[in-house]
Write a structure and sequence with these properties.
The chain is an alpha+beta fold and 151 residues long. The protein has two domains: 3-41; 54-125, no CATH class. It is built from three helices and seven strands. The strands form three sheets. A three-stranded antiparallel sheet has the order 3-4-7, with no helix packed on it. A two-stranded antiparallel ribbon has the order 1-2. The protein has a two-stranded antiparallel sheet with strand order 5-6. It is flat and about 60 Å long. The model is unreliable at 44-51 (pLDDT under 50).
Length: 151
């Protein structure tokens, strides 16, 4: 996080603390508390879930945080109380204990945006526009005005 972003967080914290009200010392104490709280979770480049993700044919592949197996993406088909993401490995024990089956279930998540940060990072690192094409020559359409600016 750069200096500008930290400054914006301080301003947001101060405004929130001022909205809460109180004496000058209370506002400063609240602003400090809010700022520290925001700084704990603000870095979006850190991996929210501490597991790796893979790729398959230049396509993002979400992997289980417990066993690193590929997971099912049921975002389009999940209904009622079905998990949106579920580990494909039936031997995975990273989920919760099921009283019905009397065992640890494979990892599952009901959060639709579970892999959002990892997918955006993957897309950012694998876009064609960002990569230089070797030997490509781009003509500069901008030319200097010899007569000066038109205004």
């Amino acid at each position: 996080m750069d200096h500008k972003e930290k400054l914006i967080l301080k301003q947001v914290s101060l405004k929130a603390a001022a909205s809460v009200g109180g004496t000058k010392d209370e506002v400063v104490a609240n602003a400090t508390y809010f700022n520290e709280w925001l700084l704990k979770g603000i870095d979006l480049d850190t991996v929210v879930n501490n597991f790796s993700t893979g790729q398959n044919e230049n396509k993002f592949v979400a992997t289980c945080p417990s066993c690193n197996s590929e997971v099912w993406d049921n975002r389009a088909t999940a209904q009622n109380n079905q998990p949106v993401w579920k580990c494909r490995n039936q031997d995975c024990t990273g989920g919760t204990f099921s009283k019905k089956y009397n065992k640890l279930m494979p990892w599952a998540s009901w959060e639709e945006n579970e892999f959002y940060n990892q997918e955006m990072k993957f897309k950012k690192n694998n876009t064609v526009e960002d990569k230089a094409i070797e030997g490509e020559v781009v003509e500069n359409p901008m030319v200097d005005d010899e007569d000066g600016a038109p205004f």
